[in-house]
Specification:
disordered N terminus, 6 strands, 1 helix, 10 Kd Chaperonin, Protein Cpn10, Chain O, mainly beta
Length: about 140
Amino acid sequence: MDALSAQTHEPFSKLQEWVSDEDIATPKILPTVVGWQLLIRPLKLRKKTTGGIILPDGAVTDIENFTNIGQVLAVGDLAYKDDRFNGQPWCKVGDYVVYHRHVGTRFRWRKVKMMLIPDDKIMLVIPDPTAFDATED
């Protein structure tokens, strides 16, 4: 097992407003990611706007469908090795990223939603996912 896939990750404890209460901790043992894939844990949107309005579940689901933010949990052994990246990875383990809406393979690992997406589908790296607010007008 390579060093990247063997890393463990803490739960999103500092993001309590962003992550819903029903989320469980990221498993300490992750699947080994191969090739050019990235293992992403999608973030859930908070259920309350910055103005204090509680959003109904349907609205949260609709917003989540247009908001693709997640944390990089593992990077495949070939990710960002292609010449088009000039040796500069777009993201690393622990980064929060915005990725294309219709991309990747969704699955659950030990009851946690995860995704495998190709390395070139990352659109943004964001330093603070709580700064991104899809509920703003």
